[in-house]
Every structure is written in structure tokens, then in C-alpha cells.
Amino acid sequence: MATKTTRRRSTKPTKTTEERAAEVDALHEQLNTAIASLVSADGWKAMLRATVANLGRYSANNMLLILAQCPHATQVRSFKQWKENGRSVRKGEKGLRIFAPMTVKKKDETGAPVLDENGQEKKRTIFKTVAVFDISQTDPIEGTEDGAQPEADESAYQLGGKVQGDAPAELWESLTRHAKGHGYTVALGSTGQADGYTDPKTKMVRIQASDPEAHRVITLAHEVGHIECGHVADMGEYRKHRGRMECEAESVAYIVAGVAGVDAALTSIPYIATWAGNTAEEVRETLAAASATVVRAARAILATTTAAEAEAEHAAEEAAQAAYQAERAAMIEAAQDREQGQPLSVAPEATAPAQG
Q: How far apart are CA 345 and CA 334, in angstroms?
């Protein structure tokens, strides 16, 4: 006997238009407060750290909203996305509200779709608020693989000085290749008191040779950021908007280095805080002008580094395959020699001298 099932209705009351508008206004107010916090180095630190962990997932404004509600936030996902990544949101955790675009069809007063001149339904984009959760609000699901990224040690975000240690060789190579794609040559040498510089006349990027390797690659990412953002195309414009452009280039460097596993906070955060502005309004203007450029440039540079990594992996795979084929051929030859009763060939240098 067939049974009739009914869809369970949500008992949560539907928000009125006024309530939704108030929620949006409250988020805008939170956003303004978060932007003001960027006057401090700690504010920039949190913003950029979250950018590395969530690159391409959320807009600059949404990341600011996330940090305003959860200052220690790093990796952020929706309820469903955390479940897909092997983690569950703990019961009772409050979601972090952000803006999400939603495409809706335009309708006339009768409720019928409004058509354009080609007979296609007109659509418009509106923004609603949705909930997301930080990794600190979740627990691993037993028996599943944890898809979260490892957390960075907070001690790594101490500020001041040059970044010590090594850096991935492929990162330097891919950044050099990216600069070359724009017609620039990269060289190590003396740069005076600067860590590095880009000369649009000679098409030369020079990096301070005496700096630690990790610091050199961050500086190179900074200079390539200037190139990718178009700062060196018009030096007059650069001098006019130097503060914003320096923030853009160093933010790009921080993101590119961070994705490659090099923590640039030590040098990037105080540098950005210095150039961003002295007042909340100055920082607000800097962020508004820089955010889209930073993400676009970082993605363009990362496309080069990702392609280089894929190319290196392919080359390594081919080399391993060739080595395997050579070893296999040698084994087959040895087996054939044994079948024919012939002695195995031995390299002359491996033979022992005759005993008299």
C-alpha cells in the first residue's frame, strides 16, 4: 500500500521586508566598523590572513564582515560545505552573516515575466544575507577525511624585520617567468636601502642579493605585483597614488607567497599599515580602491605559478616513467640472457682484479 508523504515545513518564521532591510543595514554598519579597524596593523593582518585561506571564495567586504563577527576567523565555509569537507558545525553555533548575490526574474504588476527586446526574460541581481561558519565552530566527522587546511601558528605573525629561511625554488622561477611575460628581466644585486625596485625604462626588476631567500622571493612577488597591477605603466599616476599602489603590491605579495607556503606577515603587515593611511577614512578609501585590483592581480600571478607547478609535476612524472621503462627493459634483457644460458654482463669497473 502506497503511503503519502508530506514535506516538513520549517517552523522558523519568515522574515518581513523590514526585518531583512534592518539586517542588511546592520551588516553595512558592521562593515564600516571593520574597515575602520584596518587602521591598525592587526586589522590588516587578520584581513590578509583570511584572504590567503579564502582566496576567491569571498569578496573583500564579506571577509571584513566575517572578521567583524569572528576576529580569529581563518577558514570559512557554509554548513553544507563543511559537511562535504569532513567537518560538522557544532550544535548551538551562531552563523556569521554575509552578503550573497541572488539572481531573480523581473516581473510586472500581474506577476508575468518582463521580456527584453529579444524576447528573453529580464533578470536582476539582489543581495540576501546567508550564514557561514569558521573552522573553530566545527568538529571533524568521525570516519571521514578532514578537508580543512592546517592552521597557521599565531607566533608566525610577529611583526618587524625581514623574513628568514628558505623559499620554494619554483616560486622564484614562476615569478621570474611572469615578469618576463610582461617584458621584464629579474636580477639579484645591490639595491641600496630598498629591498628591491622595478625600472620601467630598462625593464629591469632588481632584488637585494644580501637579503634572506624567503625575503627575496616576497620582494619579487611585490615587484611583480606592481607590474601586474599596472603601476609602472604611468609613473606619474604611481607618484600620485603611491600609498594605494604600495598597499596593492604588498597585499598581492602576501597572498601569492602565502598560497605557496611562505608567511610574509612579518614584513607585509607593517608595510601595508604604513602606506594604508592614518585615519579610518583614508584606510576605507584605500581598501575600496585596492581590493578588486589585489584579488585580480593575485589570481593572474597564481595562474602562472600553478601552471609552473603542474609543468614540473608532469616533467617529474615523465622522468619517473622513463626510468621505469629503462629498468623494465634491463630486467627483460637479463631474463632473456638467463634463458639462453649466457652470463650476465657486468660493467668493467665492477669486476674484481684477478688474484695471482
A: 9
Q: Which of 4-18, 75-89, 177-191 has the lowest mean pLDDT?
A: 4-18
CA nearest to 185, candidates 165, 203, 211: 203
* Chain position carrying cell 539582489: 126
Of 57, 230, 197, nearest to 130 (Cα)?
Answer: 57
Expressed in percent and rounded to 5, the helix, strand and coil fractions of the chain are 55, 15, 35
123-134, strands of its sheet edge to edge:
76-77, 123-134, 96-105
Question: How many Å apart are CA 67 and CA 65, to the nearest integer?
Answer: 5
DSSP string, 141-180: PTTS---PPPPPPGGGG--SSPPPS---HHHHHHHHHHHH
Please report, as a single letter, which amino acid is at residue 200: P
pTM of the shown model: 0.54
The region, left, alpha or beta by phi > 0 then psi within -120 to 50, assigned to residue 86 is left
Residue 265, pLDDT above cutoff 90? no
Whole-Å CA distances, 253 to 76, 218, 260, 308, 352: 22, 6, 11, 18, 59
Cα radius of gyration rounded to whole Å, the chain: 28
DSSP H/E element including 127:
strand 123-134
Distance CA 3, CA 12 (A): 27
**Residue 267: CB partners within 8 Å, gap ≥ 6?**
161, 162, 163, 215, 218
Nearest to 179 by CA among 140, 225, 111, 143: 225
In which element (H, E) is residue 63 found?
Answer: helix 60-69
- Ranking 50-64, 258-272, 320-334 by mean pLDDT, the lowest is 320-334
Q: Which residues pair with 188 in a beta bridge?
A: 207
Residue 175: half-sphere exposure toward Cβ, Cα within 13 Å: 30
- Give helix 17-37 / helix 60-69 axis angle, nearest 10°: 90
State the pLDDT at residue 48: 66
Of residues 173, 291, 267, the one with CA closest to residue 224: 173
